[in-house]
Each structure stands twice: as structure tokens, then as C-alpha cells.
Amino acid sequence: MRAGTKGRVTRDEVAARAGVSSAVVSYVVNNGPRPVAESTRLRVLEAIQELGYHPSGTARALRLGAKQTCGVVIPNVKHLFNSAVVHRLDQELSRHNLSMLLSNTHNDPETEKTVISEMLSWGVDGLIVMVSALDDDDWRHQKLPVPAILLDRQIGLEHFTTLGPDFAEGGRIATQHLIDHGHEQILAVFGGLFPGDNTRLAGYHRALSDAGLQPLTPIMTSWSLEGGYEAGKQFLQLDSRPSAVFCFSDALAIGFQKAVTEAGVRVPQDVAIMGFDGTDTVKYVQPRITTVRQPINEMLTTAVETLVKEPYEPLPEHMIFPVSLVPGESCGCPRIEGID
Length: 340
Description:
Layout: H1 11-18, H2 22-30, H3 38-51, H4 57-62, E1 68-74, H5 80-95, E2 98-104, H6 109-121, E3 126-130, H7 136-140, E4 148-151, E5 161-165, H8 167-180, E6 186-190, H9 199-210, E7 219-220, H10 225-236, E8 244-247, H11 250-262, E9 272-274, E10 291-293, H12 296-309, E11 317-321, E12 324-326
Parallel strand pairs: 1-2, 1-3, 3-4, 4-5, 5-11, 6-7, 6-8, 8-9
Antiparallel strand pairs: 10-12
Helix pairs in contact: 1-2, 1-3, 5-12, 8-9, 10-11
């Protein structure tokens, strides 16, 4: 460690001393995956010796077996949709011989910043951040030494690949389906709006406006089964109950349905329920919940293939994927046999 310098010498400091990129320092330290000219390698080694740089042993261990590591940052792995994403993402990364380093942020921006910083110090080769709690300005000021892909982001950001489902159209489709069943009083239930995502709500408002209907005061809760259950309890206390509810996630819809059915409210006869995400869990509750499916497989395949194709040169690109309605019985559609 240099005199007068607090903290551990970083890879970026070595890169600055040697006049190379941070990625080149990584290639030298890890003996790959890309070749480095001998003169450049010697310059990097000299900078390492001068600065007293000590690479993370853990990060280097993660690279054994020629595997690279992708850091995956997620708000809460307990959430139904997030769990499905992690499961599918692990499969996709393994298909490309990539390891996963996973961390929860608990929807806290400061925790997310810390997690990303720690992952970079561990030497991850890329980042996939799902439903980031950081706002757009935070990301615009981020200068990462590895490519980062932001999942479920609804606007493009310079220096990053952003991708997600068409939340606006999904919100419209869900609300319109309830309108088509004859409902005029449709309540929205959600767990707060993440930075860059108010588009599901915009879709809800658009469908109501197109039909000449007015939005109701929403119920806000946490993004969880428990949050949906609490929202259902609040619904039961309303003096005048709406005939339909659009929950902005399947977890919310499942929790909501449990709360109201326990109180003797019939679904869909007394209240129709709509979910969002398209998780498999909705197939195993009765009545089966109608939902809007996010194309998880397509989004995650694209995310990982983007990292593999350009592992050290992030491509600023914004991709939106179409969503689709998956009918169940909770909205009043005919009963569906089986679980397909």
C-alpha cells in the first residue's frame, strides 16, 4: 500500500499507472482470457510492483476452470418473479460456461451501490442488474470497467444495455381484459414504483381513459405475497368495493386472493383478479389467476448472449420485449384444465 493512501490499491489505479485499461490489468493478473502484448504485460507488472497491488484471491479463485463470472444483482430473491429469473438466468449462464455471483439489495439504493462495488472488486466479468433501485442519474454517472445490463428498465441509458418487457402495453392489456369482462370499477394494487418504471400504471390509466372510465385510488403495499395479503385486507375494509382488481405482480395477486377468499369473497363472482408476470405459481392456486406474461426466456437469453458477444465493450442499446395475456379463471374466463 502506498504511503498516504487509505484503503486497498485498486485495479483502476494500476491501469492508470501503466497507461492501460482496467480490463488489460485483469488479463495480465488472470493470464487471460485475452492475450496481452509482452511489452504491455511488463508495464502492468511493473505498476503492480510499484503500487503494491494485491488482486483478490477470491475473485481469482472464481475463475478457475476457465470460467468467467457474472455478477447478478437482484432486489429480493424471495419474490416469485425474481426467483424465476434467477433460476432461468443460472441455466443460461451455465450454458455459456459462466458462473453466477448473486446478491440481494433489498430494494435499497445504497446497498445496491455497495453490492456493485464489491462485485467489481471481486473481479466479475460482467453485471446483470434487475429492477435497479438506482435512478437514471445514478446510472448516468456510473463508469464501470465491465459491461452491465439492466433488466426491467423502461428507458435507454448511455453506456449500458437496457432491456425489459413492454410494461405499458402489459398494463393496458390487463386492464382492458377486465373492462372486456364488463368491469368499470378497477382497483390497482402495487408495491411502489421503481425508478424508470411507472409504465405499467400508465397502461392501466390509458385503458381506463380509452373506455371513458376513471382510475381509483390505488392500494400500495410491498412487492410480496404478504403485501398482496395485506392489500386484500385493506380491500375488505372499503365501504364500496370495486368489482375488479389489477395486481401488478403475480405474488400480489396470490396474496390478495387468499385474503379475500378467507373472508368469504368469491373470485371471480364478487371480485375479479388480474396478476402480472406470468409465473408458473399461478397455475397451482384456485381459481387459477389470469396474468400477463413477461417473456423471461427471451429476455435472459438476449441479456447473456449480449454479454458473451461483447464481454468487455458495453453496447448502449435499449430493447423492449412483447408481453402476452395468459387467461385463468380469476377474471371470469372459462375454467382451464391441467397446468399447461
